[in-house]
Write a structure and sequence with these properties.
Low-confidence stretches: none
Distance between the termini: 40 Å
Structural class: mainly beta
Number of helices: 0
Shape: globular
Helix content: under 10%
Mean pLDDT: 96
Largest sheet: 7 strands, mixed
Order of helices and strands: EEEEEEEEEEE
Number of strands: 11
Amino acid sequence: EVQLVESGGGLVQAGGSLRLSCAASGFTFDDYAIGWFRQAPGKEREGVSCINSSDGSTYYGDSVKGRFTISSDNAKNTVYLQMNSLKPGDTAVYYCAYLGYWGQGTQVTVAS
């Protein structure tokens, strides 16, 4: 059974940093595309970033380009999202997803 578990969220001041982790299990972690999404209260879910293991390609939403970095550690079956220069607008629940499977989410709150 595929499972995705996010961690690393919390409360941070504007301009600060957080690193989110998405620990994956239940599938072979050598050929995958895993994405990070976020949803703020009253807003639609938004794609943040994605990594494709087949060629190492990455994608970033316009609102996070230059501030967020996605990476993976295949030995740990984990995908990371390094978030720098955080803004109050980044406040949301962050989810990782793989082939229609979703984690439970981790709350990120950025105080102004």
